[in-house]
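Team,

Forwarding the record for the chain on the shared tracking sheet. I've put the sequence and predicted structure together so nobody has to dig through attachments.
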Amino acid sequence: MKEKNLLQYAKKIEKLNRNPFNYCEYVSDQVEDVVNDLADSDVTIIDETDVLLVLDQYSDGKSWVVEVWGPYTNDQFQFKQLLPLIKSHIKHFPAKLVFFYNGKNIKLTDWLEEQDALFSQQTIWQMCPFQAMNSNIRIEIHTFSIENKKRRELLALHQRMFSGNKINIVRKNHPLFLGYLNEQLCAYASAQLSQKEGRLLYLGVDEKYRQQGIATALMAQVWNFLHDSCQDKITLVQSDKAQAAGKLYKKLGFKTIRRLLSAQLIVN
């Protein structure tokens, strides 16, 4: 798609996403970032008369994942049309549809419930400076690439805790933090920079090294790096299933920004 058309779509999507009833966490609040995301070869824009949505498709190593931005609908749209519309653009089956949105979108929630989707509550926290516990962890920061050996070690650690391989993305606006104890990779964090916001995307600590202050040491390093990059707003996402993490964030003085719903739906 031509750059001019991408910019037009980015402006439209960013504007629609400002409405709390339309809000989707996958969409950046910066038009430039939305343009870059839409330019990805794995992204599909679906623009119909009564609905606009975007699909970001990728393999997480176990299943084919389809992140759904939106959908942004008008009052005439019939939600019974949504699944056939999405399926007509999916590249591989079976696929896992994932939504990350404001629970105020009752129509979307009702439709997902009809499809027997699995729901979970998510909390968006705003990070703040804090005093980390003393730790012997050595932290490397990568902003361009990492060597293959470290990449393999990172993926092995990541996939013990999370699905997917998007942790592989390393660039200037997508820094990667690797934590070592006795030259063994024991933890990592991945972050993202936009024009006005920094995000902590992933943070993982090997089970053998937990309860040693490593997580807070990594978070402090991420906060310092993003703040030094002129980001005053730095956020992270916590699933309500991760109660211990939520208690830690509250103890550290992080502030709740919003609570959202995530939903997963398997389609064949």
